[in-house]
Prior knowledge:
alpha+beta
Amino acid sequence: MTKPKSGLAWLWLAALVLALDQASKLAVVATLAPYQDVVPLTGFFNLVHVHNTGAAFSLFADQPGWQRFFFIALALVAAAVIVDILRKVRGRARFCIGLALILGGAVGNVVDRVLYGHVIDFLDVYAGAWHWPAFNVADSGITVGAVLLVLDAFQGKK
């Protein structure tokens, strides 16, 4: 019986999330004016173009600018830790997929912070007048990855 591959075999998934995230953001920047254009797709979902200088849910967005470098550094440290964990882990596909999704999303948002000084968000989910904070493909990868890690933790060892 062969030994399971290193979790690094899942880095292609992180690269895919990063590529989809950056391609979708480039499309949004090319077609939608920031804070002006809204493209309704359904009765609960729009495409928009907003800038987030903060963290999730625009946390710290009202700060004078220190948060940009803090979040870049935090994401780079997290990325290094994730790659190290993936290098060491064997098997555990759900765990590795979760880490790869988080890695791709974290790097996608870091690219925005480095290039633009903010993260480009464009997915707007709403119900009536209530809108969830806009998000992007990177945020989706991070969220799905975190859910997979929680599920993996509850599964335990067989």
